[in-house]
Every structure is written in C-alpha cells, then in structure tokens.
Amino acid sequence: MEKLEQYQNYVQQAITEYAELGSSRDEIEQQLIFDTVRNHYQLMYVGWKNRRRQHGCVLHIDIKNNKIWIQHDGTEIGIANELIKLGVPKEDIVLAFHEPLVRQYTGFAVG
Fold first, then answer.
1. What is the full DSSP assignment across 41-109?
2. Are strands 28-35 and 52-64 parallel, antiparallel or unpaired?
3. What is the CATH number of the domain that holds 34?
4. Structural domain of 86
5. Which of 27, 69, 98, 99 suits 62 as a labelling partner, its CA being 20 to 30 A distant?
6. What InterPro entries does the record point to (predicted)?
C-alpha cells in the first residue's frame, strides 16, 4: 500500500508541475483530473482559442499492478523522465502508448 500511495503522489506531482509550466495568458483552461480511488490521472486542455474549440488530453496516466502506465504523453519533456527524476524505477513505468510487442525495446517495463 505504501508504494501505491508514493506513486499516486509522484504522478500527481509530475502532472501538476507540468501544468504549471503553461501560460496563464491563454484562454485555454488546464484541468487536472485525479481519480485516486481508481488510479486514473489526466491533464486536459479545454476552452476556446481564435474562435475554435480546444479540447484534448495532454497526459493520461494510470496506476495498475504497482506500475505506472503512461497511456498518453503529449508533452515535449516526456513525463516518464520526470517520474524517474522523482525516484520511480524504469521497471515500474510502462509506456502503454507503445504497442505491447515494442515495449521490450524501450528500456521500460513491458506490462
């Protein structure tokens, strides 16, 4: 249970810190969505820019079987790198946006 709580904190910290890098001048709202019961975490962008609707997921991370599953990473920094800096070992990070057959070549967990 301690590992789960630690990973929940790391994921929330990494997503929050990334969201804080964004510009506050934008008309786009950043929504942090943290479901700590089911272990789903997202950063969404929602709003209007130049009369066009903006709605999209920037980050989607799940915690399953004591591993952090990065379902979607739309960042330039690579959220896995930020999680490693916080102390998460590569063997506990799954780059789920890669198909299962490719994951063995990423240097991260396969599942």
1. EEEEEEEEETTEEEEEEEEEEEEETTEEEEEEE--SS-HHHHHHHHT--GGGEEETTS-TTTGGGTTSB
2. unpaired
3. 3.30.310.110
4. 2-105
5. 27
6. XisI (IPR014968), XisI-like_sf (IPR035943)
Domain count, the chain: 1
What's the pTM value of the predicted model, to 2 decimals? Answer: 0.92
Q: Is residue 61 part of a domain?
A: yes
Q: Does residue 60 contact residue 41 with C-beta atoms inside 8 Å?
A: yes
Q: Which residue has the tokens 């599942």?
A: 111
